[in-house]
Structures are given as C-alpha cells and as structure tokens.
Give the backbone structure.
Amino acid sequence: MPNPFSQSPEFRKFALYRHEDASGVSGTGIVAYGVQFPPPNGKCVVAWITDVGSVSVYDNMNDVQAVHGHEGDTDVIWE
C-alpha cells in the first residue's frame, strides 16, 4: 500500500483573532485555531478555545468568515 503522506499535502493552519466581541461569548484575542484541508477538498476545521470548547467543520474558508467574521471584527491569521 502506498504511503498516503508521501505526497506532502498542504494543510494550512490558521487562528481566528477577534478584535471585538459583540456577543460576549468568545472574548477577544485568539478565540480559535483551525486547519484547512488541501485542494480540491478545501474544508476547514475550527477548534474553539472558549470556556466551552467545540469543534466545527465548514465547507471552505469563505463559510468560516461569513459565519464568524463579525463584519470585520475577526481576522484570519495564517501560519
């Protein structure tokens, strides 16, 4: 069986940095870490580091930003 990791897929790591917390739930600063799967998949997994942590899966980075961007109050910081 071939080694599935020999092709060195490019998983992209990121953090979500919240400047302002309008909802009062997640706080400010780094609120989550995530990884984006390589193309053609492109899905994103986000692990929240809030008091009640959770893991969320999104179809792509656009969806992450649409749901959690808070109209520019959250930045995606790529490694």
About this structure: Residues 12-78 form one domain. Strands lie at 12-18, 29-36, 44-48, 55-58, 74-78.
